[in-house]
Design a protein that fits this description.
Shape: globular
CATH superfamily of the largest domain: FAD/NAD(P)-binding domain
Helix content: 25-40%
Bound molecules: flavin-adenine dinucleotide
Number of domains: 2
Structural class: alpha+beta
């Protein structure tokens, strides 16, 4: 039964948020004939950061059925990465690791809209401009209260369901309710500032720079360079390049909020190579965005009638382009756990615990890898070791090479050793380059 606004009063699974995590879990469940409602606060296409995708995402996109749509979209295929870290230049090429499908640079507004439409086509009932305010999980049947902002008026409503999936990204609706959101410890707090540039040159796999219009012919790399206060990314897409920087939050605190955009532009102009890539490029002022303290985790993730996934569970760091991968992975295991639980409610608690372990494993893996230290902040080292034993070797080797490029490899070796994996040093695949021809 629906209310006058068309939103049903009941469903089996209520998903909060239609980013990569929410849309993917909704697609997977709806595909199996499960009655899913997805409520999304914004109206797609909406801006989102996180345009660099690593090749591992394809296996999850195959499961959700979104892979052919991603192919048809014609996103920019990227060849690999080049980093200039403390003056040392390294290059990796995905093809050398045996990946058969390319990594991508995607416009996230287009990518995320594609995913939410796919969820709808699979049978999920999707309502945009509807914000979830609260989920009452203590009831026999959970109830989700929302604000419907469609058509200019705001009205309240409620839906009863059997499971609530929180995929609300950094809003982390359930973690807010549980008061379980924890910032990663103080030395690991970062602020990111980013924006888009038109006609920016980009870096190809050969270490040369190319005009923006070449990007569909000559594959770019994701270009990363460290600077005095942090590091910078450059991601070339079809119409614009996304350029952003990451600094420690303490450094940002010394600055007035209004000074941050000036600092951002000044830093890009003076950073190694960036000055040349952005010479003559047009800065799109309206694209300037910032996110402070983006590294956090929730100490409570899954229960008998709720699951927190994607950024609503944790986000560590953008350095290895892990965010969308984490969202996809969490969506796939959650869909499995909920489909099983609906069939066999007696095992609900067990499935929730298994899923929580998996989500925590991936968080621990990302945290240990990205922040260059092991343990701490809710990381269970035994879970991480077990996870590493299950990750396909090709993916581990890519991560090892990537970690080596940004001088974070010691920790990764330690992780592999704890897991009993005898990974051969793959530094050879992080090729040293003498110079870049930008
Ligand atoms: C600086 C930075 C750079 C990054 N770079 C990369 C990168 O290069 N590659 C990569 O893979 N990842 C990157 N990420 C991470 C990536 O952006 C996220 O991990 C990814 O978007 C997570 O997907 P999600 O679906 O969990 O959340 P989101 O994409 O945030 O989607 C959540 C959705 O929930 C909606 N929502 C929020 N609150 C409510 C509510 N109350 N009710 C209803 N809907 C709600 C939002 O509108 C949104 O659409 C980066 C992150 C940062 C901070």
């Amino acid at each position: 039964m629906s209310t006058s606004n068309g939103i049903p009063r009941r469903c089996d699974v209520l998903v909060i948020g239609g980013g990569p995590a929410g849309s993917s879990v909704a697609a997977l469940l709806a595909k199996q004939g499960i009655n899913v409602v997805l409520l999304e606060k914004a109206q797609h296409p909406r801006p989102q950061v996180g345009e660099s995708l690593i090749p591992h995402v394809w296996k999850y996109a195959e499961l959700t059925g979104a892979a052919p749509l991603m192919e048809q979209q014609g996103f920019v295929a990227k060849a690999g990465g080049i980093t200039v870290w403390n003056g040392k230049i390294h290059r990796i090429a995905f093809a050398e690791f045996g990946f058969t499908r390319p990594a991508l640079h995607v416009e996230r507004d287009i990518f995320d809209e594609l995913l939410i439409k796919h969820a709808e086509r699979q049978g999920a009932q999707v309502f945009q401009q509807v914000t979830v305010r609260e989920a009452r999980l203590e009831l026999e049947q959970p109830e989700v209260n929302y604000l419907d902002k469609r058509g200019g008026d705001t009205c309240e409503g409620a839906i009863c369901c059997r499971f609530v999936i929180d995929a609300s990204g950094s809003s982390a609706v359930l973690a807010g309710q549980f008061k379980s959101k924890r910032l990663i410890d103080s030395s690991m707090r970062f602020l990111s500032l980013w924006g888009h540039f038109k006609n920016a040159r980009y870096v190809g796999a050969d270490g040369r720079s190319y005009a923006a219009r070449e990007v569909v012919k000559v594959r770019p790399v994701t270009f990363v360079t460290s600077f005095e206060d942090g590091w910078i990314w450059h991601i070339a897409m079809r119409q614009v390049a996304s350029v952003g920087l990451v600094i420690n939050t303490d450094r940002a605190r010394a600055m007035d909020k209004n000074q941050r955009e000036g600092y951002f532009l000044h830093t890009l102009k003076s950073a190694p190579y960036l000055d040349r890539l952005l010479d003559g490029a047009e800065y799109l002022e309206s694209s300037f965005s910032q996110r402070p303290d983006y590294s956090y985790y929730s100490s409570k993730l899954c229960g008998e009638n709720f699951y927190c996934i994607g950024d609503a569970a944790s986000f560590v760091d953008p350095i290895y382009s892990h965010g969308v991968l984490n969202a996809f992975y969490n969506a796939c295991i959650t869909a499995l756990a909920i489909a099983e639980s609906l069939q066999n409610p007696a095992y609900r608690a067990r499935h929730a615990q298994l899923c929580e372990n998996r989500i925590r494993q991936f968080y621990g893996f990302s945290r240990s890898l990205a922040l260059g230290e092991f343990g701490g902040d809710g990381v269970d080292s035994e879970l991480v070791s077990r996870f590493m034993r299950q990750v396909p070797r090709v993916e581990l080797e890519l991560m090892l090479a990537a970690a080596f490029m940004s001088e974070r490899s010691d920790n990764f070796h330690q992780l592999a050793e704890n897991a009993g994996l005898n990974l051969q040093p793959t530094q050879a695949r992080a090729h040293v380059m003498e110079k870049l021809m930008l």
